[in-house]
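Lab notebook, design round three. We kept the backbone fixed and only want residue identities now. Task for the bench partner: fill in a sequence for the structure below.
Input structure tokens:
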């Protein structure tokens, strides 16, 4: 419970006899709300507690209630500040190939050193004869080093494609994004996620939704989108494609109930027949919801809007009845205009002199004749 305290006139006495009050609490259409339990509360230093300001949305003194604005829709925020795309560190592929070849050559040399090369192969390779076969500690250490060098050299080679990117992570931590093309070398211990960053289209299945009048509809949407921030798309959402589909479904549930499929019979000023306006509204909502996960939505255009199967037959009959009523009204208005024009010409030119009874009879005959003729012509 709160109340509003207007500015009181200055009491009698000098300024030294009264304590200093705050400035006016009413400024145009702004008032200050003070809880009742704090009306006579003062802080130890003699000042009043801070007051919050409330803005009245309509004119004061008109009896209107303040306009309450609905709370803004909260958008998801990044929980991890490291989810920002940055280039990963890569080396030329030639270094990886050189390391792999060197490691393989080292393995061959260690094999000859350990005596695992047959005399025939040694003579073929023009190698001096080795000693008795045996794998000692030095040979084992050399094997491990050469094998590790081979695995690191060849295991780190990777190829980048145009329109695709690699998101690298090491032990659960983001290490960068590779958007380069061609052969390159990266740390073979990192986990690689391939992302398609090309411009893509997604056509939804017919989704159930209701318009402003509660009529059940089925809407299919064509979305044009692409991945803008790879790390948010891969690590910020479990599946960014599924997230996009859910954003489209949520946008349909928020936008279409504000419009009407049958504008003439409703109080809503926006119609679903205006496909361009519907597409713009859907695009704004879907783009705002998909942006936190690094998706850029260019267009979300409905490709098909139709009645749901359970109401399609009834709505089709209603539409046909409305068209027939509109056609009858048009035909009747045309017949009445023709009869009025005919009677007016006959009387103004003095061709006939009619009293009320004769005028009514003539109007009736002309109406029947004109309406029968229009009906016979099929117009």
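Proposed sequence:
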């Amino acid at each position: 419970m709160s109340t509003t305290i207007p500015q009181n006139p200055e009491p009698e006495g000098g300024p030294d006899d009264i304590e200093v009050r705050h400035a006016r609490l009413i400024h145009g259409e702004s008032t200050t709300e003070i809880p009742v339990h704090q009306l006579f509360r003062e802080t130890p230093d003699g000042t009043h507690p801070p007051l919050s300001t409330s803005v009245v949305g309509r004119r004061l003194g008109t009896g209107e209630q303040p306009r309450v604005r609905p709370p803004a829709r909260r958008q998801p925020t990044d929980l991890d500040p490291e989810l920002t795309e940055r280039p990963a560190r890569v080396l030329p592929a030639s270094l990886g190939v050189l390391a792999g070849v060197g490691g393989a050559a080292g393995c061959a040399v260690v094999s000859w050193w350990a005596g695992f090369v047959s005399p025939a192969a040694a003579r073929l390779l023009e190698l001096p004869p080795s000693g008795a076969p045996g794998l000692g500690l030095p040979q084992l250490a050399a094997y491990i080093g050469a094998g590790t060098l081979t695995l690191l050299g060849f295991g780190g080679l990777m190829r980048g494609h145009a329109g695709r990117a690699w998101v690298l992570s090491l032990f659960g931590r983001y290490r960068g994004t590779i958007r380069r093309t061609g052969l390159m070398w990266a740390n073979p211990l990192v986990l690689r996620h391939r992302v398609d960053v090309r411009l893509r289209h997604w056509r939804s299945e017919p989704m159930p939704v209701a318009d402003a009048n509660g009529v059940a509809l089925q809407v299919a949407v064509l979305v044009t989108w692409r991945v803008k921030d790879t790390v948010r798309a891969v690590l910020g959402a479990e599946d960014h494609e599924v997230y996009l589909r859910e954003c489209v479904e949520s946008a349909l549930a928020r936008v279409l109930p504000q419009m009407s499929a049958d504008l003439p019979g409703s109080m809503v000023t926006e119609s679903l027949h205006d496909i361009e306006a519907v597409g713009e509204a859907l695009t704004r909502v879907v783009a705002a919801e998909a942006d936190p996960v690094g998706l850029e939505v260019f267009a979300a255009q409905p490709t098909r809007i139709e009645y749901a199967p359970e109401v399609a037959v009834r709505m089709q009959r209603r539409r046909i009845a409305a068209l027939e009523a509109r056609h009858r009204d048009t035909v009747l208005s045309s017949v009445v205009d023709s009869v009025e024009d005919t009677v007016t010409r006959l009387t103004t030119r003095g061709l006939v002199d009619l009293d009320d009874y004769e005028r009514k009879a003539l109007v009736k005959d002309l109406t029947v004749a004109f309406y029968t003729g229009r009906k016979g012509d099929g117009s």
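Keep this in mind before ordering anything: Residues 91-196 form one domain.
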